[in-house]
Design goal:
Layout: E1 12-14, H1 28-37, E2 39-40, H2 46-56, H3 69-95, E3 104-108, E4 111-114, E5 117-120, E6 126-128, E7 133-137, H4 139-146, H5 154-173, H6 175-183, H7 188-212, H8 221-231, H9 234-242, H10 255-268
Parallel strand pairs: 1-3, 3-7
Antiparallel strand pairs: 2-6, 4-5, 6-7
Helix pairs in contact: 3-5, 5-7, 5-8, 6-7, 7-10, 8-10
Bound molecules: zinc ion.
Length: about 280
């Protein structure tokens, strides 16, 4: 993606290299909140994530340190991508007669406190509707490449940011809240199906964003996004972590579905074609 020297968002807060203070607020009440409110990017086992959060919550105090040149470069990149989402979603919202509220984004390492509770790098990137912020641990992308076999590359990161912004869009439109209240009256299997619908729609929105950002794309970018989408399919993650695939427990969609919905968004650029709920 072409990004050097372009407009940067002012909504990114870089907490990398900052002392965490050593304590995370993790406790019983938060567990429910995390299950309900956080949209975690990849599939995976929420219980495992919560265990890791609790383990890490008692880790020691870290010292502040200077960011490396490479880290500062990634900061600029994420700021440009976020600015691109702000520009494109503001346009789309105003075409539909409403205003867009920009989300914040926090870069962190190891652990972070959010309005949705404490979280660790093990959660992967996520969106918290409580503070309307996207939380990104960039170490996730290394894992995506080495553990889950994605190609890597800058556009994999751009796709993930655009996916999380997609959850923000669902939050301000009201889709996310509607789904959550319906889920409370459904069986686990049916509730999971709705979660899959939300995730695939966020992938679709990421595709819509890429469509409107075509002028800045470079060869291979879409392949990087599709490779990341494929790597975080529930089936791919389950195979890697437990060796078997249990479709009823899917909460994010298969690799195939995630790539397909990203592609649909990318081809059409039209948010009205993102009904991911009827196809499940
Ligand atoms: Zn998601």
């Amino acid at each position: 993606m072409k990004w050097k020297g372009r407009t940067r968002s002012r909504n990114v807060e870089d907490r990398r290299g900052k002392s965490t203070g050593g304590k995370l607020i993790a406790g019983g009440g938060i567990i429910g909140l995390i299950f309900l409110a956080i949209q975690i990017f990849g599939g995976g086992d929420a219980t495992e994530i919560l265990n890791q959060i609790q383990q890490q919550s008692s880790s020691g105090i870290t010292e502040d340190r200077e960011l490396t040149t490479e880290e500062l470069e990634i900061l600029e990149f994420t700021e440009v991508v976020l600015a691109d989402t702000e520009r494109i979603w503001s346009d789309i919202f105003s075409q539909h007669g409403s205003g867009y509220r920009e989300p914040g984004m926090v870069l962190f390492t190891d652990a972070v406190n959010t309005a949705c509770g404490g979280a660790s790098a093990a959660s992967g990137p996520f969106y918290c509707p409580g503070d309307e912020k996207i939380y990104m641990d960039l170490g996730f992308f290394e894992e995506l490449r080495t553990r889950f076999g994605a190609q890597g590359g800058d556009f994999a990161i751009a796709y993930v940011i655009a996916h999380e912004v997609g959850h923000h869009v669902q939050h301000i439109i009201g889709t996310a809240g509607e789904v959550r209240s319906r889920q409370q009256r459904l069986s686990q299997r049916e509730a999971n199906e709705l979660s899959v619908g939300l995730e695939l729609q966020a992938d679709f929105y990421a595709g819509v964003w890429a469509h409107h950002n075509r002028e800045y794309l470079e060869e291979g970018d879409i392949e990087e996004a599709l490779s990341a989408a494929s790597a975080v399919g529930d089936d791919a993650i389950q195979k890697k972590t437990s060796g078997r695939v249990v479709p009823d427990s899917f909460t994010h969609g298969t690799s195939q579905q995630r790539m397909e919905w990203f592609r649909r968004g990318y081809r059409s650029g039209d948010i009205t074609q993102g009904n991911t709920f009827s196809s499940n």
